[in-house]
Design a protein that fits this description.
The complex is a heterodimer of chains A (304) and B (162). Chain A is mainly beta. Chain A is 7% helix and 39% strand. Chain B has two helices and ten strands, in the order αβββββαβββββ. Classes of the chains: A mainly beta (304), B alpha+beta (162).
Chain lengths: 304, 162
């Protein structure tokens, strides 16, 4: 039996979907996307360790032989989208201790509680005394105590770079990407809305409530992530743009889009605007310096 | 383009059954899912309430592509007088429920193109696809609330297809 084919015109796509994965900053090791193995993945369930950041708007690529830049706007405000769009260090606002002195990036925090063994990425075990401090709807950060280390801080995602030690024992939890929303509380555990990006908490990890996020104009830390952008064509075809190393290149910027184009001074949606610089990696295939891989999965039965 | 029209209708009908199996219509003695194609039924003096009527409208063709692309506008009309149980006072709620169903039926915004003129129906190589709907304002006619949603259905002509 012989099937028929068709001549596929240029892909037609509605939107661009963004996925990011942490670069190991200490070793400068990016996360690689292999389109020969993963081109058909479910867009709602990307292969690990890629994190789905949802649909983006105004995706623009500018390529040159030695540098490439891209910009786009995130359609939601989350820990990760804020961090990517800020261009600098991004911090969690730890719930303050009673009577703490005011500080622009969050006052001295209420004491952390120790995560008990048996915790998973989605269910955090606490002692019965500690669990009474938390309720459904609260937000938490989980990570180790800061013990005076310098260099890149945070694992598997580096949230900051310290040139000299700081005196805040909660510092890693201020910059960690291991944050989550609590949806339920049992007698021994917190049930999280989504798994922690870093997986099950390591032994000795501690937990603190957070109230939101803060980032700063200025500073010397630049976010660096591996990025994957997917355009889903109307015929099942897909275009992938894979940037192994993408670094934020601009400070925090927002774009206000009126909800009703006939009423421009009315309600507006505030989008996070991200601008990035692609950094080169060496392709082990032939030792060429590469900024971006563009791959294409044709539609079924499309002439190629 | 008939295959694209048929495929779109059948996709919406299948999705409606999953979304709200209770929305049915009695036509020519048969109970069917509450969606129909106006041009494939006897003329109506008045469109039926509490069901969706697909009315095919403007057509565009792009012959400059590797495969000719058709774009045909479909108007999805629906109306309600509410339920007798509530004396029609729930007609706003009923229309809101139908608005929601239209949005749900249209997602995902594509479906395989199928040739329903042969037995058994034959799945073709391409997808029929469309964009987000544009809803009109509500029309009030005494106790009857009506609205329509317009959506353009695109498809590529395949070999041997009219």
């Amino acid at each position: 039996m012989t099937a028929t084919s068709f001549s596929a015109p240029a892909p037609v796509a509605r939107r661009v979907r963004a996925y990011f994965a942490p670069v190991n900053r200490a070793t400068q090791t990016p996360v690689l996307f292999d389109p020969s193995q993963s081109a058909t993945f479910n867009l709602d369930a990307p292969p690990a360790p890629w994190i789905d950041l949802g649909w983006i708007e105004n995706f623009t690529r500018r390529s040159a032989s030695i540098a490439a830049q891209l910009s786009f706007e995130f359609l939601s405000w989350t820990k990760l989208t804020m961090a990517l769009a800020t261009g600098s260090q991004h911090m969690n606002l730890l719930a303050p201790a009673t009577g703490a002195t005011a500080a622009a990036d969050g006052a001295k925090a209420a004491p952390a509680v120790t995560v008990q063994s048996g915790s998973t990425a989605s269910a955090i075990q606490l002692s019965s005394a500690d669990i009474a401090r938390f309720a459904a709807g609260c937000m938490i950060a989980i990570d180790a105590d800061y013990t005076g280390q310098t260099g890149f801080v945070g694992s598997p995602v580096s949230g900051a770079y310290l040139r000299q030690p700081v005196s805040d024992a909660d510092y890693i939890r201020r910059v960690t990407f291991n944050v989550a929303l609590v949806l339920g509380v049992s007698s021994t555990s917190l049930i999280l809305a989504q798994p922690l990006p870093g997986g099950a908490p390591a032994a000795g990890a501690k937990l603190q409530a957070i109230t939101g996020f803060v980032d700063r104009e200025g500073g010397s830390f630049y976010q660096e992530w591996s990025a994957l952008f997917v355009l889903q064509g109307s015929q099942g075809d897909r275009i992938f743009f894979h940037y192994p190393r993408l670094q934020s290149m601009a400070g925090a910027e927002e774009d206000a889009i009126p909800l009703d184009s006939r009423h421009k001074s009315g309600l507006s949606r505030v989008l996070l605007k991200g601008q990035f610089l692609a950094l080169p990696v060496t392709d082990p295939l032939d030792s060429e310096r590469i900024l971006c891989y563009r791959s294409f999965k044709p539609a079924a039965y499309a002439l190629i | 383009m008939q295959n694209a029209k048929d495929s779109f209708y059948m996709a919406l009908r299948t999705r409606l059954v999953a979304i709200n199996p209770a929305r049915t219509i009695l036509i020519r003695g048969a109970v069917r899912p509450g969606i129909l194609v106006e041009e494939a039924e006897a003329p109506f003096a008045q469109l039926p309430n509490d069901a969706y009527v697909l009315r095919w409208q403007a057509l565009g063709v792009d012959t400059d592509l590797a495969s000719t692309m058709d774009g045909i506008e479909c108007e999805i009309l629906y109306s309600t007088c509410g339920t007798q149980v509530f004396g029609g006072l729930d007609r706003g709620r009923m229309l809101a429920a139908m608005d929601h169903e239209v949005v749900a039926m249209l997602q995902p915004y594509h479906t395989p193109k199928v040739n329903y003129s042969v037995q058994p129906a034959a799945t073709m190589q391409t997808q029929v696809f469309w964009d987000e709907p544009a809803f009109t304002a509500i029309t009030v006619q005494r106790d009857r609330l009506s609205r329509s949603a317009r959506v353009t259905i695109y498809s590529y002509q395949e070999q041997g297809e009219a």
